[in-house]
Amino acid sequence: MTSPLFWMLAACSVLSDGGGVPPAEAATPSIAKVHTKEVTSKPYHIDKKYASMRGPYGFDGVTLLDTEKTELLWITGYRTTVVHAETGEAMSQEWMCHANLDFDATEYYDRFPTAPPISGRLFTLSQGQQDIQFPAGFGIPVTSDLPITLATQVLNLNIDAVDLDVRHKVEIDFVRDAEVTGDMIPLFQGAVEGFKALADARYYGFEDGEVDPDKHGPGCSVGQAAIAGDNDVDGEGQQFTAHWLVPPGREVNRTNVTRFLNLPYDTTAHYIAVHLHPFAESLVLKDLTTGEVVFDADVVNSKNRIGLDRVEYFSSKDGLKLYKDHQYELVSVYDNPTEE
Length: 340
What we know:
By secondary structure, this protein is mainly beta.
């Protein structure tokens, strides 16, 4: 039995506004100061190869701003760098698996009860993209007392003999609403994720008789979970996994993600970030109703080693239109050139 070469998660995080004045016509607010919260993880010791999402990891609690009175804050950017544990010198991103910023959705709704449906994950940065910056005047509203968790993990896909200690240095940009003149445009996150079926099941979250292949697409293919027991079960008892083994050769996988996106109304995407793993070629968010591609993220794989140098992202004040009554599909393409 051989270990998996890598695991794969295909996810497209769409941050969009909730209507009102069209962002392209709204005046950009004046911001007195952009604050930055820096968090450095504990040291991670790398002494062997680790498959994707199998390296050392850890968690940190984050408080953006210590205040006696709760304040409204706007998160506007997020970035991470893998650094040498002792010197703080920036290291190659080949040691980076991911850096996630999360909060509890219940805690968020306690503070923002009229917020649209959201994911509890604010950000995922991974190999190929280590920096997120929203268009000017846009931000995710949070409160200064909202509990936030940082999850970081390292990776080593290439070097057998290694003895290295590294950390994640994470920076979160935010502005204080009290220091803003004008109106910020609030963003919320909708996350969509690619799946494979673990048996003869092709659609996630649909009842019997609801599926129309011409309308909903061909459905995700059958695959093997990267780790036994890593699965999600829908209401019909069908099992799916978001982390699967990619066999040798080229693979195209499709997942209907309309219910994942869960749009409460027609809206506009202003930032799209993509999380993929090595040997990925692209990730596409497609509007099945119109047949149009919403966003096609190309990928640049590393040369002479396993890894990703760049994953394309989208950022725009004007944005891309998304519609509540449309069907959407996520299409991931991988090409595994190895024999494993």
